[in-house]
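Figure caption, in words: inputs first, then the predicted bound structure.
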Amino acid sequence: MTSPALTGADAAASALPASALPASTLFASENADGAAAARRAASRRAEPASAGLGFPTNTGAGEGADAAAPARTSTAELRQALPLVTVRDLSVAYDATTVLDGVDLDLFPGEMVALLGASGSGKSTLMRSLTGFAPISAGSVRVAGHDVTNLARGELRTLRSDVGQVFQQFNLIPRLSVMTNVLAGGLHGAGAINLVGGFSSAHRRRALELLDRVGIAHKANAPARSLSGGQQQRVAIARALMQQPKVILADEPVASLDPKLADSVLELLREIATEDGIPVLVSLHVLPLALAHSDRIIGLRHGRKLIAGATSQLDAAALSPLYDDEEHDDDAHH
Ligand SMILES: Nc1ncnc2c1ncn2[C@@H]1O[C@H](COP(=O)(O)OP(=O)(O)OP(=O)(O)O)[C@@H](O)[C@H]1O
Ligand SMILES: [Mg+2]
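Bound structure (magnesium ion present):
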């Protein structure tokens, strides 16, 4: 173990009753740290449930919930939070090669968690495990009520509609309008028939609300390919929200963007986590971005979790064991 201070804090936090710990320590615990965000999520849930159709963009709900200065919470509230994702002792193997080895992860409502690690350390594989795309050889994975290792017939589709995904390359359909791309996000649950029958006006209204929320309603009718990278990623985020996800996974969502756009896209994701109570797991390669835009950091190395802690307790030096020595985990990527 290269980082005893961090893993030690984790161990201490889980060995003690939560009430015995200061909040800063709790945030370093895998089981309790996500709950800062849960408090914010709880306050969000207390609002009228207008959220069924779209998210109000101009209510006072977001005021004071400035993502730059999220309010922390009491230990009692922390312990009330139920994780939306619970991964225990997860191992993934491709043929004879173990890619993830005994990984634990909890994601709580409302938190933004940065996933770090050298190329090949297993970040994308961990994300794929959450949507049933990785060969799980041991352990348990629960996502939004689904037991991913033991899905009922037809449940895979529900699982995937509960998980919004954002990718490095945006994955929009370039020739279609921004609006249509966002509407496509709602097709998960509706089935292909909607492609034929068109989209309902309620869906269109909601798509427009989401485009407004991500700041590009004025581009609704433009072909996706005519937008800048930062704008396209905002469309992709709106598309993910269209499916009313319970969890968002963003695999290197800003790797193709310049630093300023990267900041703004990550802030948008964090705002969504905060305001909607949706946990966002975001893999990143740029440490300052992770330190600036997450509540918590998980660091993988050679498929094992090496670091887990509150972002406020970490800095570049603490994260360096993820990257130092030899070459990258998988130098085929470089
Ligand atoms: N489908 C697959 N078949 C065989 N090996 C795989 C497969 N997918 C991933 N791997 C291996 O698993 C390891 C982890 O890959 P993964 O893509 O999860 O890393 P990563 O941390 O996301 O890397 P990067 O930062 O480059 O995106 C790598 O060694 C990779 O070669
Ligand atoms: Mg990857």
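The longest helix spans residues 259-276.
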